[in-house]
Write a structure and sequence with these properties.
By secondary structure, the chain is α+β, with helices and mostly antiparallel strands. The protein has helices at 3-14, 19-31, 33-40, 46-56, 59-70, 77-91, 107-121, 153-166, and strands at 94-101, 125-132, 139-144, 147-152.
Length: 167
């Protein structure tokens, strides 16, 4: 993530814009690639960009997006939103993790995984992104940032293969 995106993401957070508003804006951006291109384009006038922003985005985030357009940083908007989430999660003691699995865990298993992560990383809340990966054969993989805990059968087979070929 670039320093520019981090700076704008922090400003977005400091403005007190609600997470729901940022999520809605992210969803709007994801609906069409043309919106990105239009707001990034040097050919489109500032007034036209402002008009689009006012028609499409939530009122609470309009001024911020106008400033991003003015500074010609709209190409960073996805990174800016990710930087906002990072800052929001830090401020609210939230851990985000990815759980890859073969068979979707039940509520009890999910609760145990969340409790484990909350205790390990000293966080109050854990938000899990669930990803089905049949190629794991069995078990699961937990990923928090750059740290990965591979408890899958595929991972065990790979580690066994490395040990056997080392000798």
């Amino acid at each position: 993530m670039t320093q520019t995106a981090n700076n704008y993401g922090e400003v977005l957070f400091e403005l007190g814009i609600k997470k729901d508003t940022v999520e809605e804006s992210k969803r709007i951006f994801s609906l069409t690639e043309q919106l990105h291109k239009t707001l990034e384009s040097p050919i489109i006038s500032k007034n036209e960009k402002y008009s689009i922003i006012e028609k499409v985005f939530p009122k609470e985030i309009e001024n911020f997006l106008k400033v991003v357009c003015d500074h010609e940083k709209m190409s960073y908007i996805d990174e800016i939103i990710e930087a906002y989430y990072k800052k929001y999660n830090e401020a609210n003691n939230i851990l985000t993790a990815t759980l890859s699995y073969v068979v979707e865990p039940n509520e009890n298993q999910l609760s145990q995984i969340k409790n484990y992560l909350a205790k390990k990383y000293n966080k109050e809340t854990v938000e899990l992104t669930m990803v089905e990966q049949p190629e794991l054969i069995g078990g699961f993989v937990l990923k928090v940032g750059d740290i990965e805990e591979d408890n899958s059968i595929r991972g065990r087979l790979n580690r066994l293969e490395k040990k056997l070929t080392w000798r």
